[in-house]
């Protein structure tokens, strides 16, 4: 039988670093705040400078705001480099990017590359 533990005791992310794409949005920022409460450091990556910076300020010292477009491979690579430069590692990547996915839904085995890259 497992010892009785609270969700906060079970879900610990001490010494982990997470990059959250879409981190300037409501869902991404909430994930970031929860990860910090669980002991992680977070990089909030978003396309809106004001939203991303505001979310990182609300979360506090264990966060970093990075302005980047998740549809750009180069900007994503730069965001990862900033995460590693600031926190020394990267353990977790969360995709919380919004943007109207319902406009480009396809069967998985038939997904066009351009739509896959966009989404």
Order of helices and strands: HEHEHEHEH
Main sheet properties: 4 strands, parallel
Give the CA-based shape. Answer: globular
Let me know the average pLDDT: 90
Low-confidence stretches at least 5 residues in length (pLDDT < 50)? none
Tell me the distance between the termini: 43 Å
Question: What's the count of strands?
Answer: 4
Helix content: 40-55%
- Helix and strand composition category: alpha/beta
Question: Quaternary arrangement of the chains shown?
Answer: single chain
- Our estimate of the beta-strand percent is 15-25%
CA radius of gyration: 16 Å
Order of strands, main sheet, comes to 3-2-1-4
**DSSP summary: helix tally:** 5
Describe the 3D structure:
40% of the residues lie in helices and 17% in strands. With 119 residues, the protein is α/β, with parallel strands linked by helices. Strands 3-2-1-4 form a four-stranded parallel beta sheet, sandwiched between helices. The longest helix is centred in the C-terminal third of the chain and has 15 residues, at 73-87. The mean pLDDT is 90.
Record keyword descriptors for this entry:
119 residues, alpha/beta, four-stranded parallel β-sheet, 4 strands, 40% helix
């Amino acid at each position: 039988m497992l010892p009785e533990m609270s969700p906060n005791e079970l879900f610990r992310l001490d010494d982990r670093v997470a990059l959250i794409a879409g981190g300037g949005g409501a869902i991404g920022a909430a994930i970031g705040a929860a990860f910090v409460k669980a002991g992680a450091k977070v990089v909030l990556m978003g396309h809106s400078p004001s939203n991303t910076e505001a979310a990182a300020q609300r979360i506090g010292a264990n966060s970093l705001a990075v302005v980047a477009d998740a549809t750009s491979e180069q900007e994503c690579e730069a965001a990862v480099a900033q995460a590693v430069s600031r926190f020394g590692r990267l353990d977790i990547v969360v995709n919380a990017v919004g943007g109207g996915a319902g406009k480009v839904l396809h069967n998985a085995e038939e997904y066009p590359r351009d739509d896959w890259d966009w989404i």
